[in-house]
Fold each of these.
Amino acid sequence: MGTVTAAISISAAAAVVSRPVDRRRPRGPGAFRCSSSAAGERQALFSRIAPVYDHLNDVLSLGQHRTWKRICVSWSRAKKGDRVLDLCCGSGDLAFLLSQKVGLDGEVMAVDFSRQQLQTAADRQEQRWKMCYKNIKWIEGNALDLPFPDCYFDAVTIGYGLRNVVDKPRAMQEVFRVLKPGSRASILDFNKSSSLFTSSLQSWAIDNVVVPLASGYGLTEEYKYLKSSISQYLTGEELEKLAKEAGFSVAKHYELGGGLMGNLVATR
């Protein structure tokens, strides 16, 4: 892997941890650390929901999240032989799709700050085994301080992760830094709609469908967080501006699922 330390092989009992060797840039003053209270709280939240995360996604979206994730991966333009990054990989849905895109000659680096989510992803890798999944490396890491050199990846995806990052400009700058010139980042998340009807529908669904269902798993408070995280997120226009300020030459946000979801496509 060149300047990046080879990831430790993962079993069903332990998550992968990868550390940087040569980052090709110094850490700036006041660099973000996962030990900050806000990041620590979110890390704990995703660790708690990890065991039922995939099942709830299927129930709450009626399976549609799988279609949105395939669209996200398609728009990244990942292809055979590419080296790609799935940032905030969670339980691995996008990483598995990317693995099939890049094939055995490609590489998928799947990064998340939740060890429990990585463990869930590793368990799913063993249960759903395909030969191409050998190209995935699960890495515990910080989206604001990525352990990779500049211009390292042919594509980057983020699925439902940017919304939960404390410092979104810094995260976008990191995505830009590790992408090769001309390559794409494809970022899927809930859409903070400017439409009153859509935002009202989204709010009603969270209060009357999402939270009640999550309460059946003892996760009422964890899923109440969803509503506030969307309200504090960025609109499509703001995401486009964020990407361009980070250095991307082109950025376009597309609404999906009747405006309930959105996907930012940014080209370095």
Note: The radius of gyration is 17 Å.
Amino acid sequence: MADGDGAAASGKLAEASASGFEKGLPRRGKSCSGRTLNTAQIPLVASHPEVYEPCDDSFALVDALLSDKAQLLTLKPRLCMEVGCGSGYVITSLAIMLRHLASGTQYLATDINKHAAETTQATLEAHGVHADVVVTDIVSGLEKRLAGMVDVVVINPPYVPTPEEEIGCQGIASSWAGGLNGRQVIDRILPAVREILSERGWLYMVALEDNDPLDICHQMSEMGYASRVVLKRCTEEESLFVLKFWRDPHAGTSMSPKSPKSESWFSQLPFRSLWHKGS
């Protein structure tokens, strides 16, 4: 949320459960603010009891994208993707920011939670924008098809430190359960995203201070990516960072496959969603 805006719900961290371990159960409730005309409008964002609603971390990621809007427009991304789309607030906001691009940008979103896929579809439709939504774990089953194709990836990952056994929980728990130091899911996401990013691709990702953002940047450097903190925001319960990564020939050794010619992947789009209304 932009500085000065009314506070929305809290982030993913909250009081400990009965076991005494901080599970990060998020407070419910959306912001009453409509935000800006450059983002998804909160009253139009669909909801479901098993889907994480837009909160401080969602707003921080969208604000980071807004701060980079001019650069994104210059990049003219051909394919943008959100991993873990939840309510659809972020991917919808990105599509709204870039909808005047004449290049015909395509949008793709994934989530392991089928209710999130349905909610994202409803949010997209309410705003008059389109993305193909696939129910899958990160990019499972899409790796070969997407290899070297995606120009912009946005991720608000499960980053809350939780017991390891909570990893892979069904429903809303999948949106925050990050395991040890909140890094177990993040450490699976990074190499997967690296394989799908194009040579000019950018990755925007939310991280918590407990996740050790410096170590995340170091890990990406070893994969051949430079990084910077686009936005840092402190809430009542967490210190959030939005990190941006891009390929840097001077950072580590890049082994990602070369981007295929545009004809080879334009012919494959739009994707046929693996989620269908009513299924």
Note: Residues 129 and 154 are 17 Å apart (CA to CA).
